[in-house]
User: Fold these one by one.
Assistant:
Number 1:
Amino acid sequence: MKFGYFDDKALEYVITTPRTPLPWINYLGCNDFFSIVSNTCGGYSFYKDAKMLRITRYRYNSMPLDSNGKYYYIQDGDVTWNPGWQPTQTPLDFYECRHGIGYSRFTAKKNGLKADLLNFVPLHDTCELNRLTLTNESEAPKSFKVFSYVEFCLWNALDDMTNFQRNLSTGEVEIDGATIYHKTEYRERRNHYAFFSVNAKPDGFDTSRDAFIGTYSPASDPDAIRNGGCTGSVASGWYPVAAHELHVILTPGESKTFLFVLGYAENPKDRKWEAPNVINKAPARRLLAKYQTTEGADAAFAELKAYWENLLEGYHVESRDEKVNRMVNIWNQYQCMVTFNMSRSASYYESGIGRGMGFRDSCQDLFGFVHLIPEKARQRIIDIASTQFEDGSAYHQYQPLTRRGNADIGSGFNDDPLWLIAGTAAYIRETGDFSILDESVPFDNDEATCVPLFEHLTRSFEYTVTHKGPHGLPQIGRADWNDCLNLNCFSDTPGESFQTTGPSEGPIAESVFIGGMFVRYGKDYAKLCAHRGLLDKAKAAMTEVQKMEQTVLNAGWDGEWFLRAYDANGQKVGSHECEEGKIFIEPQGFCVLAGIGVKEGKAEKALSSVEKHLDTKYGIRILAPSYSHYYLNLGEISSYPPGYKENGGIFCHNNPWVSIAETVLGHGTRAFDIYKKTCPAYIEDISEIHCTEPYVYSQMVAGSDAKYFGQGKNSWLTGTAAWTFVNISQHILGICPDYDGLRIDPCVPKDFGSYTVSRRFRGAMYRIHISNPDHVEKGIRKLTVNGKEVSGNLIPITEGVTKYEVDAVM
Ligand code: BGC
Ligand code: IFM
C-alpha cells in the first residue's frame, strides 16, 4: 500500500494523506540553519548544532505522535484547521505534502479556502521562510483569521528539557512591530537571539504559551483562538512562544500571500558586554528586509532550486529502470547530503542531543557526498582528523559546534582510525588533491601537536598494526563497526554491561571485520605512501596487508564463511560451533570486497553462505540465528529482542557491502537483487509494512525473527545512504573514481540494457554510454574516449579537456 507517489520531474515525493504510518520527514537547510519538517508540519529548527543552539522546541515521545512544529491555524467561521492537518487534525477537503530537495510544500483546502504553504531555508540566510498563500476558491467573499505559532526552545536542548528550576525563570522576549524576538540567554552574554516575523501588520500577538495555547489546553485547541484572539501577552519566564494574528478578507478567486520568517542572529564578536539587555536588532532587520516581498522569497527559492539542480548534475543516470534513475539522480544523493550535514545528530530517531558527529560515521558519509561539494568534504576530513589522539585512536564522536571530541564517550572503537584512511582516500580519488595530505592538523585539537594529515593516516594504520590479539587479528576494543559487539565487558550488574562499563578494552578479543578493513584501506595507505615517494614505507605497509590477509584466511575462516570475532576468552563468535549467532554479515561483505579469499574460492563460499543463511525477502540480516537471550561475553548485541537492530535485524548499512562483494565476483544479477531489496523506491508498495519514508533509507528493517518483520526504523541518518550510493554508482553502474581518473567497470544483470551516466569529475563533464550487446554481467571489452579507443578500463585525464564523450561496450 502507498501513501503517496514520486513526482520525478519535480524531484518531489508527494504524500497524499496526513495519516502516514510514521511521520515522514524532510530536511531544510544546506549550511548553518537547519529545520526538520514532517508531513504534518511537525519538527524543529536549530543553528549549526541541534543540542547547543536549538531554536524551537520539539517533544520526542509525544502523544499524539509528532507534536510541536511551526503551525498556522486558519479560523474560518466556526472551523479551525491547519494546512498540515496537525495539530487540530480537522479533516481536510484536500491535503497534499510535497517533500522536495531542501523544501516542503503543503497544499490544503477546507470549505472553499485553499492554503499553499512553502517552507524552505534560503541558501545564504540563517532563517526558515514559510510562504503562506491563501486563496478563496468559493463563490462568496471570505473573512477569516490566520494565527501563526512557534514555541521557542531555550537554546541548549538537553538543559531545556531537564533544568526547569532555572529555565522557567529565564525566558525573555521583545516585540517590535511584526517581529517577536526571543532573547533568553542574551543577558548572560551568549550573543545570539532568534526572531519570528511576518511581512504584514499583525492584528494581535502572543508570546506566552500559557496565554496563547492555555495552561491546560492542547495545541489542537488554543485558548486564544477559542476566545476570540491573541491577548498581547509578553512572556517573562515560563514558556516563550511567538504567535501572530492576522485578519484576512478575500473576494472570490482572490489570493493573499504572507511571508513568515523564523531567524537566528548573532552580534559581532566585539559586542560590549556591559551594554544593557537590549538586543541589537540590526542583523535581524537586514535579513528581514529581503523577505518583505514575495519577489524576495521567490528569488531565494529559485536560487535554492538552481543550486540543487546543479549539484545533482554531478551524477546522473539514464537507464531503463526508472527506480534506479530516481534513487540515483535524486533521493540517494539528497540523503547523502543530509547525512553529511547531520551525521547522526538530529532526526526523528536521533534527538539531536545524544550524538553529535560520529568519527566513523562522518568518514563513511563522505563517500556519498564527496562528489557533490569536495571543498566541504576536505574541511570535514580535517575536522575529523583533529579529534584523533597521538596514538592513532580517536574520539568516537564530536560536537558540531565546537568540533571538539566528546569526552563522555571517549575512544576505544578500534575500527575508527581506519575509517580516516578510507575517507581521505575517497576524497583524493574524487579530486586528485593530494595536497590535503600536507595540511597541518592537530591531535585532539591541541595546536601544539600539529603534523601533516599524512602522519595522521600513518598513526591510523600503525594503530591496527600495534593492536593485535593472539591470532594476529586486530583487537576489537570496545567495539568495531558493530557498536553492540562488546566483547570486553563482563559486568553482570543489569544495565551496566555495555561498552561503557567494565573493562572495555583488552588484548584478547579480536575482530575479523577490522582485519578486512585493514586489508581494504591498508592498500590505499600504501598507495598514498608510494605517491609521496615513500617506497619503503609503501612496501612495508603492503607486507602488513598481506600478512593480515593470510591471517584472515586462516584464523578468520570458519569452513563455510568468515568468522566474526574472538571474544575475550578467545572463543569464536560467528562460527558454526556457536549455538546462536553462527554467521554474521559484516566479515563476509567486507572481506570479500577487500578481495580476500577470491582466488582461494573462500569468497564464493562466504557469499553463498550469506545467501543461504542470512537472506530474506526484505534484505540480508546482520546475523543468524538471532540471540535468544543475553550473553555476558557479547554485550549489547544480545540485549535486543531477536530480529531487531544489531541482533538479527536487516541492517541496511552492510547490505551494500555484500552487493559490492558480489560485483567483485562478477555476479551482476545477485548484486542488483540485493540492491533492490532494501532500496526505498522498490519497496514503496509495502509502505504499510515498511512504515518509514519510501524515499530514503532507514538504518534498520526488522529481520525475520522479529514480530514486525519488514518494518523500518531510524530513517535518514544512516551510513546506508553513502554505501548504497557507492554500490550503485561505482560498483553496479561501474563509474568509479580512481587516483588517476575514472574507471569504468560495470557489473549489472544480463538484461539491464544500455545506459548513460553523466558525471562531473575534476572540473570536467563526462558523458558515458554503456552498452551490453552480449548480455554479460561484468566488465567492458571496448572503451572509446572522445572518438579514440583506449586500452584497459581507465579514462585517462587529458589536461585542458573539459568534455569527455565515452563509449563503453561490455
Ligand atoms: C546502535 C545501537 C546502540 C547504540 C549505542 C548504535 O550505533 O545502532 O543499537 O544501542 O549504538 O551503543
Ligand atoms: O556502525 C554503527 C554506526 O556508527 C551507528 N549506527 C549503528 C552502526 C552499527 O552498530
Number 2:
Amino acid sequence: MQVVSTIAEVRTARPQWPTLGLVPTMGYLHAGHISLVERARAECGAVAVSIFVNPTQFGPNEDLASYPRDLERDLAMLRDAGCDLVWTPGVTEMYPPGFSTYVEVENVTAVLEGAKRPGHFRGVATVVTKLFNVVQPTRAYFGQKDAQQTVVIRRMVADLALPVDVVIAPTVREPDGLALSSRNTYLAPDERQAATVLSRALFAARERWRSGERSAAALRQLMQSILAAEPLAQVEYVSAAHPDTLAELETIDASGALLSMAVRIGRTRLIDNVVLDPAE
Ligand code: PAF
C-alpha cells in the first residue's frame, strides 16, 4: 500500500491502474468505510482512499478542531482491507494560498442538512471535485448514511459530466441499529443508548409504510412521536422527501421516499435515514 500526501505523487502513481475505485473519507475509519473499500476492491482493479478532514465543509461553530483523527489506526485498517493507495493531503495542498474557486450545487442543497449547515455542501462539492480531478477514479464510493450528500454528488457529476461512476453503498449499522459514524465516538454511555432512537423511529416508519401507509405527514408524525419519547434527544428535523429532488412529500407514490432526520443527543449531532423503495 502506497501512502502519499502530495497531488504530484498521486499523479505519478495513477497510470499504473486501468480501473481505480476511490473512497473519499475524513478518516477515523469504521466498518462502514471498510465496506466501501471492499466493494471497490470487488469492482475495480485497485482502490484508493483519501483521508482529509475538509475544513470548508464545517461551519464556524462545528466540530472541525475536535473531529476525531487517528491516522496510524486508519492506515492499519486500510492495509488489512487491501487498499492500494492512500492519499492524505495537507490543508494547503487542497487549499493553496489565494484559493478562490468553489462548486455550488443549487436546489437539492437548500433543504435538510443544507438548510441547517449553510455552506456545508459547497465545501463537500468543492473538495470532491478536486479529489476526482487529482485521483481520476473510474468509480467513486459513498455511503447511504449521508443521504443528501449522495444526492448532491450524483447531481454534480451529472450536471458537470464528470467522468466517474458514483456508487452508493448501504449504511452499516451496529447490532442495535445505530448507524456507524465517526461522530459516535463523542457519545457518553447513556447517550449511546439513547442514540438508538433514530433508527427505531426510521424503522417504525418504514414498517408503517410497508403495511400500506402512504401519507408522508403520518410517517413524519410517527417518527416525531418516537423521538419525543427519548429525553436526551433534541430533534432538528424529520423529513419524508422525494428521493431525488428532496422536496417534502404529501403522498408517497411509486417514486418512493427518503425518510431522514437530524437529532442532537447531548452535544452530538447525529443524522440517519432509510429509503422507501417500492421496487424492493
Ligand atoms: O462523507 C465524508 O466523509 C465527506 O463529506 C467527504 C465525501 C469525504 C468529503 O469531505
